[in-house]
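Read as amino acids, tokens; as here:

___
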Amino acid sequence: MRLLAILFLMLCSVAVQAKSEGERVRAWTLEDQYGDAVMIAPDTRLLLVASSRKAADVVNEALEGLPEGFLESHMALYVADVSRMPKMITRMVMVPAMRSASYSVLLDYDSKVAPAHLGQGDEVLWLGLEGLVVEERRTFDSPEALRQALEALP
């Protein structure tokens, strides 16, 4: 029994670990708030992942007021894990509300991307990529700090 508990805890800890530097991000395709399919490309330089409502609020506030096309011009993608929200509410309320954003929000309906990277955290995960290999991993829990990091992008 004790061995089973230890194995279970080990599996849980592996499931919530984020990608570490040097690891490769698997290719995936997600739908944005307009229903367009977006695939992570080898030239993607930054992946922002929000696995909770609180983390999504941090990203949304940090991106507020930045020029339209900011993420695209920096080869960045923003993924929001919406898997824990009832699909009907997501599709009828949240997605239409997201359409007012001046940036693309990739919706992870099935926890296809987010839990593999962040688990259930309230922090925004920043993965700096080079050819889909993680070069930098940071987390943010404040919109101000995230905004400052975004504005410092080359």
User: Anything to note?
Assistant: Confidence is low (pLDDT under 50) at residues 1-18. The radius of gyration is 16 Å. The first helix runs from residue 2 to 16.
